[in-house]
Automatic annotation (TrEMBL):
<dbReference type="GO" id="GO:0051990">
    <property type="term" value="F:(R)-2-hydroxyglutarate dehydrogenase activity"/>
</dbReference>
<dbReference type="GO" id="GO:0046872">
    <property type="term" value="F:metal ion binding"/>
</dbReference>
<dbReference type="InterPro" id="IPR051264">
    <property type="entry name" value="FAD-oxidored/transferase_4"/>
</dbReference>
<dbReference type="GO" id="GO:0071949">
    <property type="term" value="F:FAD binding"/>
</dbReference>
<dbReference type="Pfam" id="PF02913">
    <property type="entry name" value="FAD-oxidase_C"/>
</dbReference>
<feature type="domain" description="FAD-binding PCMH-type">
    <location>
        <begin position="41"/>
        <end position="220"/>
    </location>
</feature>
<dbReference type="InterPro" id="IPR016166">
    <property type="entry name" value="FAD-bd_PCMH"/>
</dbReference>
<dbReference type="GO" id="GO:0022904">
    <property type="term" value="P:respiratory electron transport chain"/>
</dbReference>
<keyword id="KW-0479">Metal-binding</keyword>
<dbReference type="InterPro" id="IPR006094">
    <property type="entry name" value="Oxid_FAD_bind_N"/>
</dbReference>
<comment type="subunit">
    <text>Homodimer.</text>
</comment>
<keyword id="KW-0285">Flavoprotein</keyword>
<comment type="similarity">
    <text>Belongs to the FAD-binding oxidoreductase/transferase type 4 family.</text>
</comment>
<dbReference type="InterPro" id="IPR016171">
    <property type="entry name" value="Vanillyl_alc_oxidase_C-sub2"/>
</dbReference>
<dbReference type="InterPro" id="IPR004113">
    <property type="entry name" value="FAD-bd_oxidored_4_C"/>
</dbReference>
<dbReference type="InterPro" id="IPR016167">
    <property type="entry name" value="FAD-bd_PCMH_sub1"/>
</dbReference>
<keyword id="KW-0274">FAD</keyword>
Length: 467
């Protein structure tokens, strides 16, 4: 079929009178919907389809199979691995208009959502019903549930509440063959063979598209309190974590370097937490549900100072102050964005973090002393974000080429530490060449076999995770 015939057919497929979808072909729309937050691959989609129902998605997939049309899913387009980039004339299936909360069950504490529901929308709905959706990250205001699940997003609360997959009671998916599956039917116990729900979580749309998800909610935490500590040395991150976890159930344990905080402070919207400068900082969050908890927290702080692990610190005295302290961590990505950072999202088991981070920092600094390195991340669950900032006088293409040389050295260290080359952002296209550093040849062969079962014609987000 010609491009014009494909576009005409797409319009017919979503033109159902009760819930008409849209097809966009304007150059500005193609550019907007054809990319995510990565800046490496220029978008070049054929068309953008915005369906309204699962039935329309199913019709699109069946049409794509019959006519060998590649489909790329698009959520909030906040991804950092080019998993939602359409660079080769694909048809983008965007879920912006499938954004309804469909059902709420107070007894089961579950909420059924369409894939285009924005993370913050779900969080707000939970709060309005006296409950809590704990998966949270800086992009919560624009990221969509389908994309979160397709990359098994983590974020800032993993140390207490886990990853996105831990909150999924059930899924409705359209497979690469065009079959609609209701997976797990929201059951807490269902030991009837393979749990296909978890194959689609983290699959980046390569097996099929998630159209609905039933998400679990929990009780709202009480009196969340934030403590920001200036650390004397990198290894002190683990000393402090171990000390606090003996007495407190932390809801977050974040980390950032002095260089990272410097970029946030330069924007002028956030103030330094205290006058003392430290090479690294830790942000701890916990529920201060009693005077005893606060007493324990202050005693632990004093212990860490006496041990020489902590140089200074500040604790929030109100919800507003807690939110302001969080800005030190959450505004990092925004503040360094103008420098076109090359991002690596890597992880190891928590106990190995200090040595792991130090080795990588040494390698990058030795080979590229003129590159500014920004470290931050979810250190409480072993997830680190390595950001290399582009020098102002270097062309973007030259910079990305040099960073790809860095990748080999970084991922060799990741492999040696038995870590992951992608902790929470997915593989997409940017991490695809490095999958073998985390997955064995046998594992990758099984992954390919699973892909073949669900998507035999390779129309679902082709070229992502592996070729």
């Amino acid at each position: 079929m010609s491009s014009e015939q494909i576009i005409a057919s797409l319009k017919e497929l979503v033109a159902t009178p009760e819930n008409p979808g849209k097809v966009l072909t304007d150059p500005a729309d193609l550019d907007n919907y054809g990319k995510d937050w990565t800046k490496i691959y220029p978008p070049k989609p054929l068309a953008i389809v915005l369906p309204k129902t699962t039935e329309q998605v199913q019709a699109l997939v069946k049409f794509a199979n019959e006519n060998q049309v590649a489909l790329v899913p698009s959520g909030g387009r906040t991804g950092l691995s080019a998993g939602a980039v359409a660079a080769n004339g694909e048809v983008v299936v965007a879920f912006d208009n499938m954004n309804q909360i469909l059902d709420f069950n107070a007894s089961d504490r579950t909420v059924r959502c369409q894939a285009g529901v924005v993370t913050e929308q779900l969080q707000t709905f939970a709060e309005e019903n006296g409950l809590y959706y704990p998966v949270d990250f800086a992009s919560a205001g624009s990221s969509q549930l389908g994309g979160n699940l397709s990359t098994n997003a983590g974020g800032i609360k993993v140390i207490r509440w886990g990853m996105s997959r831990d909150w999924v009671a059930g899924l409705k998916v359209v497979t690469g063959k065009g079959d609609v599956l209701d997976l797990n039917k929201d059951l807490a116990k269902n030991n009837t063979g393979y749990d296909l729900r978890h194959l689609f979580i983290g699959a980046e749309g390569t097996l099929g598209f998630i159209t609905e998800a039933t998400m679990k909610l929990t009780r709202k935490p009480d009196d969340l309190t934030v403590l920001v500590l200036g650390l004397n040395d990198l290894t002190n991150t683990m000393d402090v974590l171990q000390a606090f976890q003996k007495k407190l159930d932390l809801t977050a344990y974040e980390f950032f370097s002095h260089q990272a905080m410097g970029h946030v402070l330069a924007h002028g919207q956030v103030q330094a937490p205290f006058e003392t400068e430290a090479p690294y900082y830790a942000l701890l969050e916990f529920e201060a549900v009693s005077d005893q908890v606060m007493d324990d927290a202050m005693a632990l702080f004093e212990q860490c100072v006496e041990e020489g692990w902590v140089l200074d610190g500040v604790i929030s005295q109100s919800e507003t102050q807690a939110q302001n302290l969080w800005q030190l961590r959450e505004r990092i990505s925004e503040s360094i964005a103008p420098r076109i950072p090359y991002k690596n999202d890597i992880s190891v088991v928590v106990s190995k973090v200090p040595g792991f981070l130090q080795e990588i920092d040494n390698v990058v600094t030795e080979h590229y002393p003129d590159f500014e390195i920004i470290w931050f991340g979810h250190i409480g669950d072993g997830n680190l974000h390595l950001n290399i900032l582009k020098p102002e006088d270097m062309a973007k293409e030259d910079f990305f080429e040099k960073c790809q040389q860095v990748n080999k050295w970084v991922f060799e260290i990741v492999e040696r530490y038995q870590g992951s080359v992608s902790a929470e952002h997915g593989v997409g296209m940017t991490k695809k060449p490095y999958l073998q550093y985390t997955r064995s040849e046998a594992e990758i062969a099984y992954l390919r076999g699973i892909k073949q079962v669900f998507d035999p014609n390779n129309i679902m987000n082709p070229g992502k995770i592996f070729d």
